[in-house]
Write a structure and sequence with these properties.
Length: 423
């Protein structure tokens, strides 16, 4: 009886299992081909190379000699393109476009001579367009200085964006020829030694959104027409023809300390010019250089003595240099006087009490560079007559000025460096 019950249960189990197996087979019936199925060799090491409204799909060709075509799908298999695979090709490249700016999933299936399709291989790719382009800016110029003496333009750049690949520069040289140059992203200073600054400098910046991108994005051209002028002339302007001029309203020298002392090349203690008292501030003196010259820099020496006149006392702390080609003997401040520079002679340390290093520095002469500023928009013009205008001394800015110094101005020597343009 037990044996019959076991046989019945076994037969029932076999019978019930048949529908289950048939249902499972139906899941795969579409993939079963009599005598087996052939899958061509797949695309290997697939890459996407982004571009502007297009993209390149590239892969290594496998070793399957029967692969003759490939099909690339995107947008969930709703769009595709077929391409031929040349015999013996190592790398396959195919550009798809135009495409909207977006991120895409591409499926690549190879096809053999019998029309069999390989297993799909996916690669993600990005297509760039106007949205990306709108985020790009020209690399910024930090400073631009044209040396009117050496005729050299020096551009200092801010750091490049990581995706920048260079800046295209175009300019007209001094012979009227158009020239171009490429500024590398690592370059922070560009020197152009033959530019005609009366003509515009044109530049734009190039970007690659990805190191594997197939298209370069270039910003719109920028025209630069104005430059900061500087003058590197270092020729010593001779003092042999310098002559003191005492014009109305000029400060008068203290007896024994005339204006001519400032060009006598005597750098010993107590030598120099001292103005008298009660001239107030500002006060000025005038002299004739005897030649026309473009000034690039000056050196001024404070009076050296036991008193604190080096960075102290009556020494000019803040002063201006003015120049003229023709002299107005009335002494008026008319349009013939050209502002050349405004300078501050404070110790390098910034200390109110000069350090030993400050003293050593000052004894060599305090250098002041002429440059284009709001005060002096056009300083690099030939001048013959000089006005030294003291705005304040070290004593005058103290909370409790020393009455012994009063409003007197004193300094030892001054030298100019630049270019004599007329004897």
């Amino acid at each position: 009886m037990k044996m019959k019950k076991f046989v019945f249960i076994f037969l029932v189990g076999i019978t019930l299992s048949f529908p289950s197996c048939k249902q499972s087979d139906s899941l795969y019936v579409d993939y079963i081909v009599p005598n087996g199925i052939t899958y061509p060799g797949i695309a290997l090491d697939v890459e996407s190379h982004p571009g502007r409204y297009r993209i390149e799909i590239a892969w290594l060709n496998g070793s399957d000699p029967n692969v003759v075509k490939a099909r690339i799908y995107w947008n969930n298999y709703t769009e595709w393109q077929d391409l031929d695979i040349p015999p013996g090709a190592d790398t396959i490249r195919h550009i798809i476009g135009p495409l909207d700016e977006n991120t895409y999933s591409f499926m690549i299936r190879t096809i053999d001579t019998k029309g069999n399709l390989s297993v799909p291989v996916e690669v993600i790719g990005v297509v760039y367009g106007d949205l990306y382009f709108s985020s790009l800016f020209n690399r910024a110029i930090k400073t631009d200085v044209f040396d009117v003496f050496d005729k050299i333009l020096v551009l200092n750049w801010y750091n490049a964006d990581p995706s920048e690949i260079g800046v295209n520069l175009s300019y007209t040289d001094t012979n009227g020829n158009q020239k171009t140059m490429l500024v590398d992203p690592s370059e922070t200073t560009t020197v152009i030694n033959d530019i005609d600054i009366d003509q515009p400098l044109v530049y734009n910046t190039m970007y690659l959104p990805d190191s594997m991108a197939i298209d370069i994005f270039s910003t719109a051209n920028v025209e630069k027409r104005t430059f900061t002028l500087a003058f590197s002339g270092r020729d010593f302007i001779p003092k042999t023809n310098w002559t003191e001029l005492v014009l109305p309203n000029d400060a008068i020298a203290l007896s024994g300390y005339p204006v001519s002392n400032i060009w006598n090349e005597n750098y010993s203690n107590y030598n120099g010019f001292f103005s008298g008292y009660n001239f107030g501030f500002p006060q000025w003196i005038t002299w004739d250089m005897g030649v026309n010259a473009i000034l690039g820099s000056l050196k001024i020496w404070h009076i050296l003595d036991a008193s604190p006149r080096l960075y102290g006392g009556e020494s000019p702390r803040r002063f201006e240099i003015w120049g003229a080609v023709e002299l107005n003997e009335t002494g008026e401040w008319d349009d013939s006087w050209i502002p050349l520079g405004q300078f501050l002679t404070v110790p390098p340390s910034g200390s109110t009490t000069p350090t030993p290093d400050d003293i050593a520095f000052g004894r060599q002469g305090i250098e002041c560079i002429f440059s284009v500023t709001d005060f002096a928009p056009n300083p690099f013009v030939p001048v013959r007559y000089i006005r030294f205008k003291t705005l304040e001394t070290f004593n005058s800015v103290l909370s409790s000025p020393d009455p012994d110094y009063g409003d007197r101005v004193a300094f030892g020597n001054i030298s100019f460096y630049g270019l004599v343009v007329e004897d």
